[in-house]
Automatic annotation (TrEMBL), chain A:
Membrane keyword on record: yes
Subcellular localization: Cell membrane
UniProt key word Transport: yes
NCBIfam families attached to this UniProt entry: HEQRo_perm_3TM
Membrane spanning stretches: 12-38, 58-76, 83-107, 182-202
Protein name in UniProt: Amino acid ABC transporter periplasmic protein
Primary subcellular site in the record, as a coarse category: membrane
Keywords: Amino-acid transport, Cell membrane, Membrane, Transmembrane, Transmembrane helix, Transport
Domain ABC transmembrane type-1 span(s) in chain numbering: 16-203
Topology relative to the membrane: Multi-pass membrane protein
PROSITE patterns: ABC_TM1
Superkingdom of origin organism: Bacteria
Sequence similarity: Belongs to the binding-protein-dependent transport system permease family.
UniProtKB/TrEMBL annotation, chain B:
InterPro entries: AA_ABC_transptr_permease_3TM, ArtM/GltK/GlnP/TcyL/YhdX-like, MetI-like, MetI-like_sf
Family, similarity comment: Belongs to the binding-protein-dependent transport system permease family.
Organism: Fructilactobacillus lindneri DSM 20690 = JCM 11027
PANTHER family hit by this protein: INNER MEMBRANE AMINO-ACID ABC TRANSPORTER PERMEASE PROTEIN YHDY, MEMBRANE COMPONENT OF AMINO ACID ABC TRANSPORTER
Protein name per its UniProtKB record: Glutamine ABC transporter permease glnP
Keyword annotations: Cell membrane, Membrane, Transmembrane, Transmembrane helix, Transport
Length: 216, 215
């Protein structure tokens, strides 16, 4: 097992880096897009609400692979788009639907008095939402967001379908060459566990800290 | 009808949908039963055993499902376990989803007040009776909405089995649009619509349970 790592450490670390990079872009993109769609879902405007709901329901209920292949196969015919970006855009769209649900849940559990108080002080709906309600809702959404980000890292293995050169892709390349899928997949699995394990430890600590904050 | 939606193509694609649904159903049943047992083991503090199970469950939960599918299909034959694509998908998905179900069941059991258990024990029920008649029924009821969400993920994740050439819906759509690039967009729309129909009806079911529990 150590041999496989010694012989392929460059390939594995390259894949590891691509997986991390794609996850980070996915995280930033889906947080931004997810927050926008959560706000749309909660907006008083009927049209915005409909668009937000439609987006979230659509991307929550179709497989990530369908979205990713759509970008890699259909969109790539007209626009130059690499496997990495097809996969990462797919990840952003797919994850943002789940992020929107988490943030919507968080905002919904913020006490209604917060919005009423802000409005009574003369803030507009948008101001009150962005400065008063959203920050509190965001904090409440952190535990469920953490789970989504762990899923995001795991889902980034979708890049292997579209030649995204991520960890999973390199695992297939290496095991295709050395004909030892057993040990190769175990090594790659360890690398995935490093990221997801680290993320879940960090999330648990944040949760603990927020939990204590609430008790005080 | 001709073109992308010719009757041969549609017949072929719907056969794939059938395989998607069968794989999903078998995996749901196995993962539910196994996950239920694992969830109870995680909840009850059985010395050493629970800790070992906890470690295994956490490890599997933190790995990509795609890795598990590849491992089951390509690596297990090295140990003398040869599975075809269908069996490998079912095994990999059942193992992965069972760990997810276990976490949900454990969460459900933890959310029941300690008073329920104490009350049952004080009326003379044994530990096992308390678990079976008092704790599990309440925990299961609370677990239904998250379980359905998890099973929606499971249905979507069956598409990953394309990688080991299981002829499910996603794979078959690729075969169809492989014949003619003009079929691509119609195929993607149809496949997305079919997945959406299956999963959206499941999520409506979850919402219905959610509302019933609140009232």
């Amino acid at each position: 097992m150590i041999n496989i790592f010694m012989q392929n450490w460059q390939t594995i670390l390259n894949g590891f880096w691509i997986t991390i990079l794609s996850s980070l872009i996915g995280l930033g993109g889906s947080l931004l897009l997810g927050t926008i769609f959560a706000l749309m879902e909660l907006a008083p405007n009927k049209i915005l609400k409909f668009i937000g709901n439609a987006f979230v329901e659509f991307f929550r209920n179709i497989p990530l692979l369908v979205i990713t292949l759509f970008f890699y196969v259909v969109v790539a015919k007209d626009f130059k788009i690499s496997g990495f970006w097809a996969g990462t855009i797919g990840l952003i769209l797919y994850t943002s639907a789940f992020v929107a649900e988490c943030i919507r849940g968080g905002i919904n559990s913020v006490d209604e008095g917060q919005m009423e108080g802000a409005r009574a002080n003369g803030l507009t709906y948008t101001q009150a939402m962005i400065h008063i309600v959203l920050p509190q809702g965001f904090k409440l959404a952190i535990p469920s967001l953490g789970n989504q980000f762990i899923n995001l890292v795991k889902n980034s293995s979708i890049l292997s379908f579209v030649a995204g050169f991520d960890l999973m892709y390199q695992a297939n390349v290496i095991s295709g060459a050395n004909l030892d899928p057993f040990n190769t997949y175990i090594i790659v699995g360890i690398f995935y566990l490093i990221i997801t394990g680290l993320l879940s430890t960090v999330m648990r600590q944040i949760e603990d800290r927020l939990g204590k904050g609430r008790l005080q | 009808m001709s073109g992308a939606f010719s009757s041969i193509n549609l017949h072929y694609l719907f056969g794939g949908l059938g395989i998607t649904i069968i794989v999903s159903l078998i995996s749901i049943i196995i993962s539910f039963v196994v996950g239920l047992i694992l969830g109870v083991v995680l909840y009850e503090d059985i010395p050493y055993f629970s800790r070992t199970v906890r470690f295994i469950v956490n490890t599997i939960r933190n790995l990509p499902l795609l890795l598990l599918i590849f491992f089951t299909y390509f690596a297990l034959p090295k140990l003398g376990i040869e599975l075809n694509a269908f069996a490998a998908t079912v095994v990999a998905m059942s193992v992965f989803e069972a760990t997810m179900v276990a976490e949900i069941i454990r969460g459900g059991l933890l959310s029941i007040g300690q008073g329920q258990k104490e009350g049952a024990l004080s009326t003379g029920m044994t530990n096992l009776q308390t678990l079976w008649y008092i704790e599990l029924p309440q925990a299961l009821k609370r677990s239904i909405p998250p379980l359905i969400s998890q099973f929606i993920s499971l249905v979507k994740d069956t598409s990953l089995a394309t990688a080991i050439v299981l002829p499910e819906m996603m794979f078959r759509s690729q075969v169809i649009y492989g014949q003619n690039p003009n079929y691509m967009i119609p195929m993607f729309i149809l496949v997305a619509a079919l997945y959406f129909m299956v999963n959206y009806s499941l999520s409506l079911l979850a919402k219905w349970f959610d509302r019933r529990m609140v009232s």
